[in-house]
Known about the structure:
The protein has 165 residues and is of the alpha+beta class. The chain is built from four helices and eight strands. It has helices spanning 21-31, 38-47, 101-115, 130-138, and strands at residues 4-8, 11-15, 53-57, 60-73, 81-92, 120-126, 142-147, 157-163. The chain has an eight-stranded mixed beta sheet, with helices on both faces. A hairpin with a 7-residue loop joins strand 4 and strand 5 (81-92). The longest helix has 15 residues, at 101-115. The two termini are 30 Å apart. Bound molecules: acetyl coenzyme *A (ACO) and zinc ion.
Amino acid sequence: xxxxLRQLGDCNIRRAEPSDLISVMEINLKTLPEHYSDYFYESxxxxxxxxxxxxxxxxxxxxxxxxxxxxxxxxxxxxxFVKKGHVVSIAVLDEYRKKGIGRALVEESVNGVKLRKCxxxxxEVRCSNNEAVRLYEKLGxxxxxxxxxxxxxxxDAYLMAIELD
Length: 165
Ligand code: ACO
Ligand code: ZN
Protein backbone atom coordinates (compact mmCIF):
# COMPACT_ATOMS: atom_id res chain seq x y z
CA UNK A 1 0.00 0.00 0.00
CA UNK A 2 1.34 3.44 -0.91
CA UNK A 3 1.85 5.81 2.00
CA UNK A 4 1.56 9.39 0.68
CA LEU A 5 3.23 11.67 3.21
CA ARG A 6 2.50 15.04 1.60
CA GLN A 7 1.78 16.76 -1.69
CA LEU A 8 3.59 19.73 -3.23
CA GLY A 9 1.43 20.76 -6.19
CA ASP A 10 1.56 17.82 -8.61
CA CYS A 11 4.35 16.14 -6.67
CA ASN A 12 3.62 13.33 -4.22
CA ILE A 13 6.11 12.71 -1.44
CA ARG A 14 5.74 9.07 -0.42
CA ARG A 15 7.61 6.09 0.86
CA ALA A 16 9.54 4.19 -1.80
CA GLU A 17 8.52 0.74 -2.97
CA PRO A 18 10.65 -1.98 -4.58
CA SER A 19 9.30 -1.01 -8.02
CA ASP A 20 10.76 2.52 -7.60
CA LEU A 21 14.33 1.34 -7.24
CA ILE A 22 15.22 1.34 -10.96
CA SER A 23 14.08 4.98 -11.21
CA VAL A 24 15.94 5.87 -8.03
CA MET A 25 19.14 4.35 -9.46
CA GLU A 26 18.63 6.31 -12.69
CA ILE A 27 18.23 9.58 -10.76
CA ASN A 28 21.38 8.77 -8.79
CA LEU A 29 23.35 8.05 -12.00
CA LYS A 30 22.29 11.37 -13.53
CA THR A 31 22.92 13.54 -10.48
CA LEU A 32 25.74 12.24 -8.30
CA PRO A 33 29.18 10.67 -8.78
CA GLU A 34 28.65 8.19 -5.91
CA HIS A 35 26.85 5.05 -7.08
CA TYR A 36 25.84 1.84 -5.35
CA SER A 37 24.96 -1.76 -6.17
CA ASP A 38 21.36 -2.87 -6.75
CA TYR A 39 21.64 -4.93 -3.60
CA PHE A 40 22.56 -1.86 -1.54
CA TYR A 41 19.40 0.02 -2.62
CA GLU A 42 17.28 -3.05 -1.89
CA SER A 43 18.80 -3.50 1.53
CA UNK A 44 18.28 0.16 2.52
CA UNK A 45 14.63 -0.09 1.50
CA UNK A 46 14.20 -3.34 3.42
CA UNK A 47 15.93 -2.03 6.54
CA UNK A 48 14.61 1.53 6.78
CA UNK A 49 11.51 2.02 4.60
CA UNK A 50 10.37 4.84 6.93
CA UNK A 51 13.22 7.01 5.63
CA UNK A 52 13.48 5.85 2.02
CA UNK A 53 11.28 8.47 0.39
CA UNK A 54 10.57 9.37 -3.23
CA UNK A 55 9.10 12.46 -4.85
CA UNK A 56 6.84 11.39 -7.71
CA UNK A 57 5.26 13.46 -10.47
CA UNK A 58 2.66 11.81 -12.71
CA UNK A 59 3.75 8.36 -11.64
CA UNK A 60 7.50 8.84 -12.12
CA UNK A 61 10.05 9.44 -9.37
CA UNK A 62 11.98 12.73 -9.77
CA UNK A 63 13.80 12.68 -6.46
CA UNK A 64 14.71 10.39 -3.57
CA UNK A 65 16.33 10.22 -0.18
CA UNK A 66 17.61 7.01 1.36
CA UNK A 67 19.01 6.45 4.82
CA UNK A 68 20.23 3.88 7.29
CA UNK A 69 20.53 3.63 11.06
CA UNK A 70 23.72 3.02 13.00
CA UNK A 71 24.95 2.95 16.58
CA UNK A 72 28.01 5.07 17.25
CA UNK A 73 29.62 7.94 19.05
CA UNK A 74 27.52 11.05 19.30
CA UNK A 75 28.32 13.96 17.00
CA UNK A 76 27.27 16.28 19.85
CA UNK A 77 27.90 14.73 23.26
CA UNK A 78 31.41 14.16 24.53
CA UNK A 79 31.02 10.59 25.70
CA UNK A 80 27.69 9.52 24.28
CA PHE A 81 26.95 6.33 22.35
CA VAL A 82 23.76 6.94 20.40
CA LYS A 83 21.46 5.65 17.67
CA LYS A 84 21.98 7.70 14.55
CA GLY A 85 20.12 8.08 11.30
CA HIS A 86 22.47 8.55 8.35
CA VAL A 87 21.45 10.09 5.03
CA VAL A 88 23.18 7.87 2.49
CA SER A 89 22.04 9.84 -0.56
CA ILE A 90 19.54 12.46 -1.69
CA ALA A 91 18.96 13.91 -5.14
CA VAL A 92 16.33 15.68 -7.20
CA LEU A 93 16.45 15.73 -11.02
CA ASP A 94 17.81 19.05 -12.25
CA GLU A 95 14.58 20.21 -13.91
CA TYR A 96 12.58 19.76 -10.68
CA ARG A 97 14.91 21.59 -8.29
CA LYS A 98 14.14 24.77 -6.36
CA LYS A 99 10.52 23.84 -5.77
CA GLY A 100 10.87 22.61 -2.21
CA ILE A 101 11.18 18.92 -3.08
CA GLY A 102 14.63 18.55 -1.50
CA ARG A 103 13.40 20.14 1.69
CA ALA A 104 10.33 17.89 1.83
CA LEU A 105 12.47 14.78 1.31
CA VAL A 106 14.79 15.71 4.18
CA GLU A 107 11.91 16.66 6.49
CA GLU A 108 10.08 13.38 5.83
CA SER A 109 13.25 11.36 6.38
CA VAL A 110 13.71 13.16 9.71
CA ASN A 111 10.22 11.96 10.64
CA GLY A 112 11.17 8.46 9.49
CA VAL A 113 14.29 8.17 11.62
CA LYS A 114 12.42 9.66 14.60
CA LEU A 115 9.93 6.80 14.27
CA ARG A 116 12.93 4.51 14.69
CA LYS A 117 13.99 6.36 17.84
CA CYS A 118 17.22 7.82 16.46
CA UNK A 119 18.83 10.42 18.74
CA UNK A 120 20.72 12.16 15.96
CA UNK A 121 20.73 12.37 12.15
CA UNK A 122 23.86 13.02 10.09
CA UNK A 123 25.27 13.09 6.60
CA GLU A 124 28.37 13.90 4.60
CA VAL A 125 28.32 16.50 1.85
CA ARG A 126 31.00 17.90 -0.48
CA CYS A 127 32.35 21.14 0.89
CA SER A 128 31.76 22.72 -2.55
CA ASN A 129 28.07 21.66 -2.67
CA ASN A 130 26.63 25.00 -1.56
CA GLU A 131 23.06 24.18 -2.57
CA ALA A 132 22.96 21.08 -0.41
CA VAL A 133 24.84 22.60 2.55
CA ARG A 134 22.39 25.54 2.57
CA LEU A 135 19.39 23.21 2.46
CA TYR A 136 20.68 21.17 5.42
CA GLU A 137 21.51 24.31 7.40
CA LYS A 138 18.00 25.67 6.87
CA LEU A 139 16.64 22.43 8.31
CA GLY A 140 18.81 22.69 11.43
CA UNK A 141 21.84 20.58 10.53
CA UNK A 142 25.14 22.05 11.64
CA UNK A 143 28.66 21.36 10.40
CA UNK A 144 30.38 19.25 13.06
CA UNK A 145 33.55 18.14 11.27
CA UNK A 146 35.47 18.45 8.04
CA UNK A 147 36.52 15.05 6.69
CA UNK A 148 39.78 15.28 4.81
CA UNK A 149 39.79 13.74 1.27
CA UNK A 150 36.53 11.91 2.00
CA UNK A 151 35.64 11.47 -1.69
CA UNK A 152 37.46 9.40 -4.31
CA UNK A 153 38.49 12.52 -6.19
CA UNK A 154 40.12 13.89 -3.04
CA UNK A 155 37.51 16.49 -2.08
CA ASP A 156 36.75 17.06 1.60
CA ALA A 157 33.31 16.48 3.10
CA TYR A 158 31.49 18.32 5.82
CA LEU A 159 29.90 16.05 8.37
CA MET A 160 26.62 17.77 9.21
CA ALA A 161 24.35 16.61 12.00
CA ILE A 162 21.18 17.44 13.90
CA GLU A 163 19.99 16.36 17.36
CA LEU A 164 16.51 14.86 17.30
CA ASP A 165 15.64 14.58 20.97
N1 ACO B 1 10.45 28.84 -5.75
C1 ACO B 1 11.72 29.29 -5.77
N2 ACO B 1 12.70 28.76 -4.99
C2 ACO B 1 12.34 27.78 -4.16
C3 ACO B 1 11.02 27.28 -4.07
C4 ACO B 1 10.04 27.86 -4.92
N3 ACO B 1 8.78 27.43 -4.90
N4 ACO B 1 10.98 26.29 -3.14
C5 ACO B 1 12.26 26.16 -2.67
N5 ACO B 1 13.05 27.08 -3.27
C6 ACO B 1 14.48 27.28 -3.03
C7 ACO B 1 14.88 27.06 -1.61
O1 ACO B 1 14.63 28.20 -0.81
C8 ACO B 1 16.34 26.79 -1.76
O2 ACO B 1 17.01 28.02 -2.01
P1 ACO B 1 18.43 28.35 -1.44
O3 ACO B 1 19.35 27.25 -1.93
O4 ACO B 1 18.73 29.67 -2.02
O5 ACO B 1 18.29 28.33 0.03
C9 ACO B 1 16.43 26.00 -3.05
O6 ACO B 1 15.22 26.26 -3.75
C10 ACO B 1 16.61 24.50 -2.86
O7 ACO B 1 15.63 23.96 -1.96
P2 ACO B 1 14.69 22.77 -2.40
O8 ACO B 1 13.87 23.18 -3.57
O9 ACO B 1 13.98 22.30 -1.18
O10 ACO B 1 15.74 21.65 -2.83
P3 ACO B 1 15.86 20.95 -4.27
O11 ACO B 1 14.63 20.20 -4.59
O12 ACO B 1 16.36 21.94 -5.25
O13 ACO B 1 16.97 19.83 -3.95
C11 ACO B 1 19.25 19.08 -3.74
C12 ACO B 1 18.23 20.15 -3.33
C13 ACO B 1 18.73 17.69 -3.37
C14 ACO B 1 20.56 19.33 -2.99
C15 ACO B 1 19.46 19.19 -5.27
O14 ACO B 1 20.14 20.40 -5.56
C16 ACO B 1 20.25 18.04 -5.90
O15 ACO B 1 19.70 17.00 -6.22
N6 ACO B 1 21.56 18.24 -6.13
C17 ACO B 1 22.40 17.25 -6.81
C18 ACO B 1 22.60 16.03 -5.93
C19 ACO B 1 23.23 16.41 -4.61
O16 ACO B 1 24.12 17.24 -4.55
N7 ACO B 1 22.75 15.80 -3.51
C20 ACO B 1 23.27 16.02 -2.16
C21 ACO B 1 24.55 15.28 -1.96
S1 ACO B 1 24.95 15.07 -0.22
C22 ACO B 1 24.11 13.64 0.27
O17 ACO B 1 23.55 12.97 -0.56
C23 ACO B 1 24.09 13.25 1.75
ZN1 ZN C 1 27.46 8.89 4.53
